[in-house]
Design goal:
The protein is mainly beta. It is built from no helices and 14 strands.
Length: about 150
């Protein structure tokens, strides 16, 4: 069993994955059991289940999707840095046009009651900043683009 904690629109959710069989996931959301059907069969590999329905009050028929958590390597050109976890942006330390070095702190993300520093993965210039302080984000949301 895996457990996840989410904060969506200021509301905290605790999700416990009980079982995964084919296209059906049995889970508990804040102590209430649900059976969730996904759009494709889930293989037992290192993937996370992400609720696609971002309503403040999920329904028992919420649709879920799978998302690979393996980081993508830069392939030249613009590079988007995506959120590794759902959470809240505590601070943003860069602006569009700033020159950054690999390893430089870009922002601070609060996820599961922990502060996570988001760093630049390469040297470059900030082309876009997709979040602001206080934004609630989901795993995979684009935070910044470095060119």
């Amino acid at each position: 069993m895996k457990s996840y904690k989410f904060k969506i629109h200021g509301t905290n959710y605790s999700v416990d994955i009980k079982s995964v069989e084919g296209q059906t996931i049995e889970l508990e959301l804040n102590g209430t059991p649900y059976q969730v059907e996904v759009d494709k069969q889930i293989k037992q590999t290192p993937k996370k289940v992400v609720l696609a329905n971002r309503q403040a009050s999920p329904s028992p028929s919420a649709v879920a999707t799978t998302q690979d958590v393996t980081p993508k390597k830069p392939s030249g050109g613009a590079n988007s840095i995506k959120s590794p976890l759902p959470g809240t942006i505590l601070d943003v330390f860069v602006n569009v046009g700033d020159t950054v070095k690999a390893g430089q702190k870009l922002m601070l993300l609060e996820a599961m009651k922990m502060e996570n520093q988001i760093d630049a993965d390469r040297d470059g210039v900030i082309k876009s900043v997709g979040v602001r302080k206080g934004d609630v984000i989901m795993e995979g949301d684009v935070l910044v683009t470095i060119e």
